[in-house]
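Hi Y.,

Following your request, here is the sequence exactly as I used it, all 207 residues.
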Amino acid sequence: MTSTAADLAARIDALLPQSQCRLCGYAGCLPYAEALAAGRAGINQCPPGGDTTVRELAAVLDAPYQPVDPRFGATKPPAVALIDEKLCIGCTLCIEACPVDAIVGASKLMHTVIADACTGCELCLPPCPVDCISMAPTGVQPSREELRDTAAAARLRFERRNARRARELAERRAAGRVNTATVNERIVQRAMERARQRLATKGPRNK
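Below is the corresponding structure, written out as C-alpha cells. Let me know if you'd prefer a different format.
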C-alpha cells in the first residue's frame, strides 16, 4: 500500500466505530478501511457506524451516500455484553473471542465483562456453550465526540491485544509449543458464522 493509500486508510479508520465486529466482512476496522481506500469495499458495510458514519465516509471518499446494507446486519442502539454469573462455567471461549479484552476471568472460574471496554460486537455470544451471555442496551446515545473517544480507546485495546497475542505466539514457537493461534481463529470464525445465521433467521439475540 502506497503512503497516499495508507494515509487515506488511516483517515477512514478514524471514522469507524472500532467495534472490530467483522460484520463488514473484514477482519477488523482497519482492514475494512484499507479496502475502502483501495476501492474494494462499499461505504455501507458498517452497521455499528450507522448512517452517520456512512455520510462521513461518503464525504471523505467523495462518493454518493448509500444507506447501510442490511445484508451486513442491522444498526442498533449502543449495547454491552452481560454474563449471567450463575450460569457461567468458566470455559474462556468468550475471552478468546473478544477482540478488545473486555472480558476477564480464568479457566473454570466465573467471567465478567468490563462494561466500559465492551464494544458491543457480539462476537462473544456464539462461542458460549451455555448461552449465559446477552446484550443489554446502554440506554445512552453518546455524542459524536464521545463516540470518537470511545473508538480511539477500543482501537488501542485491540492493537494491544494483537501485539500481546503476536508476542505469545513467538514465545510458543521459540519454546517449541503447539501453536494454538489456529484454534483461536477457528473459534472466532465459528462465532461469526453463527452470528450471521442468527441474522438470517431470527436476528441478533437480546434479552
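The chain has two domains: 3-72, 85-207.

Thanks again,
Q.
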